[in-house]
Every structure is written in structure tokens, then in C-alpha cells.
Specification:
Rossmann fold, Alpha-Beta Plaits, 2 domains, six-stranded mixed sheet, elongated
Length: 310
């Protein structure tokens, strides 16, 4: 549904997008993750035909973004980070205005508005001016506006910024539901837990370049992060276990820390199986064991560093 090849965009001396390439399959939720100023919004703006690129290729739904912008616009919905709604109008009126801009009218538009209000749980607030809505309600309406013309691809740029945890949860549920119905989503966010919960694959962009791409397991492999297996055994067995474990396939390091054996390894599950065999041979039982897998935050910080970005 989306194919990008060697996309580049500069603003003066700043290379906002610097040779970015990726593809997004039909029905996929694809996350674009990165610090402030990494190039996420610029990339989406180019794909949504809102900003020209300096060079490269980009296709959405089979249409060339640069040569067929009108065809692309008919197939996509865009939900910007800044709210794109009319505060003085009601939710119903907002959807009507944007629907008409897409050429919808009559009973078809009326039915679509009713469907979206129900989907976003805004039906009972349909005729209230939007200026009185909570932040979460405005965000949900903002997403519905992007869906009013039934697009095939939805671009969501930081759709949960500035709202509370309950509102964020509602929006994530909303996106999951739309995706189950076949909608392809390109999603940018600062919230690592959102990306981990929502996205089929994630691309980490930093300084305008793609630093890593894949699902969680693929990212772990690319970056070289390891599992940690930590267990409590009898003191008399610790050094012997460390010596044995250090020779096992996939084990990078084994040592004793704070009275526990700790093993850094490529595959925690495989090491647990070896541990069970070894302990059985020693007449001991496996207890107080934990396997710590790298999470998205671990991977993200390794890719982008820990320095604060503004």
C-alpha cells in the first residue's frame, strides 16, 4: 500500500529526511518512531502530498505521490498532530463540512456521519459545539474527519498527544477496530508502549535516517540485544553453573551478581531448557528464575541514544 525509496528532503542545511526507504503492506499498522525532529512528520507530509520531496520515489495505493497527487488524495486520510477541526461547529457539522469537501452529499454522507459518530462514541454529543469537548473527544473527532471519505490508508501523526491515559486507551482501541476492518495505518508516536501494543512493524527514524525496521523480534536481532536469564541456586553450585553455562551455544556471558546467577544470551527460552537439564543432573530444582527480554524502550534508547531532544 505504501512504497518509499531513497526519499530525501532538506530545509536549508537541515536534512529532515535523508535516504528513507520502507514499504507498508495492505492491512498493516506500521509505526514510525523517533525523537523530536527525527523526520517523522516530514515523511508523512510528503506521502500525503502536502509537501514536495527533493528526490526519491514514493507510491501510495499504486499511485506515484509526485505525479498523481490527486489520485493519492482520494485514497488516503490524514490526521495531523495539530487538531484540524472547527471549534465553533458541532461534531456533526464538522463531519458534514469535511465530507462535502470530499464530494460526499445526501443520504450517503448522512449515513456515514452517523456511522462515524457511533464508532467514536460521540453520538450523544453530535450537536454540541466542539469547543466544549474534552481533549480526548476532540482527538476522536479529528480521527473521524480523516475517515469520512472511507480511505484505504490512514496517516496518523501523534494522535494521542496531550490527552489522559483513558482517552489514549479509547483511541488505541478505535485504531485496532479500524485496522481489523482492513484499514492500513501509518502511525507516528512518541509513546513507546503505544507502538509496542499497536504496530505490526516499526521503523525507528533518527536524524532523518531509518536506523532500524522490523517487528519486535527482528529489531532485537538487528540491534544485537540479548535476553537475560537470572536464577537463584545453592551457593555451592553457583560457580560451577557459571562455568558450564559460559560454554553453551548462544550464551555471551555468565556470572554471579547479588547472589544470583545471571546469563546474557541470544535465546532465553533455549537457555532455560539447558538449565533444567543441568539442574536435573545435579539433583536440584529450578526456582526463582526470571527471563528478561529487551523491550521497545531498551531498543529505542540503544538506537537513538539517551540525550534529550527538543
Amino acid at each position: 500500500m505504501i512504497r518509499v525509496q531513497d526519499l530525501r528532503k532538506s530545509f536549508g542545511d537541515i536534512r529532515a529526511v535523508n535516504g528513507v526507504s520502507f514499504s507498508v503492506g495492505e492491512g498493516e499498522v506500521f509505526g514510525l518512531l523517533g525523537p523530536n525532529g527525527a523526520g517523522k512528520t516530514t515523511t508523512i507530509s510528503i506521502l500525503a502530498t502536502l509537501r514536495p520531496a527533493d528526490s526519491g520515489q514514493a507510491f501510495v495505493c499504486g499511485h506515484d505521490v509526485f505525479r498523481e497527487p490527486e489520485a493519492v488524495r482520494r485514497r488516503i486520510g490524514v490526521v495531523p498532530q495539530e487538531l484540524a477541526i472547527y471549534e465553533e461547529l458541532t461534531a456533526e457539522q464538522n463531519l458534514d463540512v469535511f465530507g462535502r469537501l470530499y464530494g460526499l452529499s445526501g443520504a450517503g454522507l448522512k449515513n456515514r456521519i452517523a456511522e462515524l459518530l457511533d464508532l467514536s462514541e460521540l453520538t450523544e454529543h453530535a450537536r454540541r459545539p466542539v469547543k466544549g469537548f474534552s481533549g480526548g473527544m476532540k482527538r476522536r473527532l479529528n480521527i473521524m474527519i480523516g475517515l469520512v471519505h472511507t480511505p484505504d490508508v490512514l496517516f496518523l501523526d501523534e494522535p494521542t498527544v496531550g490527552i489522559d491515559a483513558q482517552a489514549r486507551s479509547k483511541i488505541l482501541d478505535l485504531i485496532r477496530g479500524m485496522n481489523r476492518q482492513g484499514l492500513t495505518v501509518l502511525y507516528t508516536t512518541h509513546y513507546l508502549e503505544e507502538a509496542e501494543q499497536l504496530c505490526d512493524r516499526i521503523a525507528v527514524i533518527d536524524h532523518g535516517r531509518l536506523a532500524a525496521i522490523g517487528d519486535r523480534e527482528e529489531l532485537i536481532t538487528q540491534i544485537g540485544e540479548q535476553d537475560t536469564v537470572r536464577l537463584q541456586v545453592l551457593e555451592s553450585l553457583r560457580e560451577r553453573l557459571v562455568t558450564n553455562a559460559g560454554s553453551w551455544d548462544g550464551v555471551a556471558e555468565a556470572d554471579v551478581r547479588r547472589g544470583k546467577v545471571q546469563i546474557q544470551c541470544r535465546d532465553g527460552a533455549a537457555v532455560v531448557a539447558r538449565l533444567q537439564q543441568w539442574l536435573d543432573s545435579e539433583g536440584q530444582h529450578l526456582e526463582q528464575l526470571e527471563v528478561i527480554r529487551p523491550n521497545l524502550e531498551t531498543l529505542y534508547l540503544k538506537i537513538t541514544g539517551r540525550a534529550l531532544r527538543e
